[in-house]
Amino acid sequence: MGAAGWTVAGELPARWVIHVVGPNWNGGQRDPDLLAACYRNALAVADELGATSLAFPAVSAGIFGWPLDDAARIAVDTVLRTPSQIVAARFVLFSQEVFDAFRRVMSDSGE
What we know:
The chain has helices at about 30-50, 70-80, 95-110, and strands spanning about 5-10, 15-20, 55, 90.
């Protein structure tokens, strides 16, 4: 859980796609470190590739059912606190509800 790998991006407007499989809250995988590991490992792969920017989804916050506020807090805290050569990290979020959760966390963290 949380391992990261990469592929070329094909026709996407990116050089690579970094893949992670997040923990399934609905399936009983509720250890926050498993979710944080997805972000840490993606950052490590990005560093290996020499990337300087990275776009993240809200890992596990969709069909896997991770509670949104907790998923947002783990994502933002992990990306901010993990040493990396990434200079621009973006969260690409799939709904207003998810966006609002991330906005709350980022406002609380001063980012």
